[in-house]
Design brief:
The complex is a heterodimer. Chain A is mostly helical. Chain A is built from six helices and no strands. Helices cover about 55% and strands about 0% of the residues of chain A. Chain A starts with a helix and ends in a 12-residue tail after the last helix. By secondary structure, chain B is mainly alpha-helical. Chain B has ten helices and no strands. In chain B, about 65% of the residues lie in helices and about 0% in strands. Chain B is elongated. The chains are: A mainly alpha, B mainly alpha. At the A-B interface, helix 1, helix 3 and helix 4 of A face helix 2, helix 3, helix 7 and helix 10 of B.
């Protein structure tokens, strides 16, 4: 049984690299290549393209080595390459930040003494306010709902003692 | 009385100078011979530049990335497992930098979508010949084969292109490519086959 063009295309790459180990497949790829002009042209185009591609190598620019040397010198100047540089840099930054903060704090004049806290004079009533139940108050719906909410909460242990 | 003069001639046999292997150069560097690093740069600068340049399609940026490769090698060489192949390690670094470069370029959501779509299609489209009459006109205007070939490489989906370049230009084995690109062997085979097929398809109409 012969192979068709699609089979050939599937097998050709490994055949070209000498990795097709099945003798039956090798024989059929070979035979197809001999008899099919279209596939032969395909392979010829591939090989020609590869030849052109391989002959077009690029070379590093004349300054490549000097630039690299500069970068490597800078790399060595930062630290011995044996020490992982990123960790070393991070540690150095942390140390520098800590030292900076320390120096800043040491050189900053001490903050002026804070003014003494104002002591509020106790409020003294000349006369006692009337008892709460005697005050006629019209509450807004909002206040009413607020009071309702507050009354539903746990009572605070606050005792106000008014003495005459 | 007679004197006998004898002349002796010494022939010095030239012993071929053996080029040290990568492993030996790396070992020498780690033992304190700082000049050995230059040997590594000398050996790999051109190869890496071609690999990165073909992968990202930008020569100037390619040089920057290759410099970065050597900086990283210099920084991490002490961590390199010397039982492994140095060339695979350095190509893996270059490959990751090239991938990052391509990823950063495709941050634009539209470009990202187009890339994903292109890659998906490239992986799933059946291998078959195309009708060349429907090729875009600009392809026929490519006058020079070299330009055409360069352009053909740039048209390959990113992950196919990397495998293609590693195999065809760098001569890496399938196993090395799998390690460098962090793919399994089957994926490498499939991507390489598709990349070759696509590359040939672009060249084909221009070859008599």
């Amino acid at each position: 049984m012969r192979i068709n063009c699609q089979d050939f295309l599937q097998l050709y790459s490994e055949y070209a690299d000498g990795r097709l180990t099945d003798p039956w497949a090798v024989a059929h790829v070979h035979e197809h290549l001999d008899k099919c002009d279209r596939c032969a042209h395909h392979v010829e185009s591939l090989e020609l393209g590869l030849d052109v591609l391989r002959s077009g190598d690029v070379s590093p620019s004349p300054t490549f080595r000097s630039r690299l040397s500069r970068r490597l010198r800078a790399e060595v100047a930062i630290g011995d390459p044996i020490v992982p540089t990123s960790a070393g840099l991070a540690a150095a930054l942390l140390l520098a930040t800590g030292l900076g903060l320390f120096l800043y704090q040491a050189n900053t004049p001490a903050a002026e003494e804070a003014p003494p806290a104002v002591r509020l004079a106790p409020i003294a009533f000349d006369t006692l306010p009337p008892p709460l139940e005697e005050i006629d108050v019209t509450l807004s719906p909002f206040t009413q709902s607020t009071l309702q909410f507050l009354s539903s909460q746990e009572p605070l242990d606050v005792r106000v003692v008014l003495s005459p | 009385m007679s004197t006998v003069t004898t002349t002796t001639s010494r022939t010095v046999e030239a012993t071929p100078v053996r080029t040290p292997t990568d492993s030996e150069v790396v070992a020498a560097y780690l033992a304190g011979d700082r000049r050995s690093f230059d040997q590594l740069v000398e050996r790999y600068q051109r190869r890496l530049l071609n690999f990165v340049f073909r992968t990202i399609g930008d020569r100037e940026r390619g040089e920057d990335l290759v410099q970065e490769v050597f900086i990283r090698v210099h920084r991490h060489l002490h961590r390199f497992d010397q039982t492994k192949k140095f060339s695979t390690w350095i190509y893996t670094i270059a490959s990751n930098l090239a991938k990052n470069e391509l990823r950063n370029r495709s941050r634009n959501p539209l470009v990202l979508f187009q890339t994903i779509k292109k890659n998906w299609e490239a992986d799933h489209r059946p291998l078959q010949f195309e009708d060349h009459h429907y090729r875009p006109d600009d392809l026929f205007r490519k006058r020079h084969l070299r330009e055409l070939v360069e352009w053909a490489v740039s048209q390959l989906p990113e992950h196919h292109r990397m495998v293609f370049v590693l195999r065809e230009l760098e001569g890496k084995t399938y196993e090395e490519i799998a390690e460098i690109t962090d793919c399994n062997l089957g994926t490498v085979k499939s991507r390489l086959n598709r990349a070759r097929h696509r590359f040939a398809q672009i060249i084909e109409p221009h070859v008599d």
